[in-house]
Each structure stands twice: as C-alpha cells, then as structure tokens.
Write a structure and sequence with these properties.
alpha+beta
Amino acid sequence: MFVGDFNATPESSEILKMSAQYKDVFAELGQNDDFTIPVGKPDRRIDYIFTSEDVKIRTGEVINTNASDHLPITAELVLKKK
C-alpha cells in the first residue's frame, strides 16, 4: 500500500503509471472529484491511497479540516480471504 501526497493529479503520467500497477482507492470508488488541495477551496486531487488487488475497498473519505495545507484522506480497507 502507498499513501500520501504525490503532487500529481489523476491524469498525470506518474499517477497513470501507479494506477496501472495498483488500485487507486478513490478512483475505484468513483470519487475522483474528492479534491484535497487547497484547503480553503479544494479544486484538485493530489493525495492518494493505492492498494493491491488482494484488498477490498469499503469506503474513502476526505476529512474537512484546516490543520494542514491539504485535506487528509482516509479509507476503510479489508484484506480479501485467500
């Protein structure tokens, strides 16, 4: 799993490469418009949670707070049984 500020939008080459190998939690949930920056009036998404195929994605959420220059993200994930 990879989590953090990638400083790149979903259509950037960096994120497209990551998405080819890992599941983008917010994209999988149809939440590509859950923007995280700037805090005052978010207009783009540059923060991500990427996971592998063996993880089930239940929820993803952007938390509304002014504690940072980015809005934090969270997700509920469950390991799939083998």
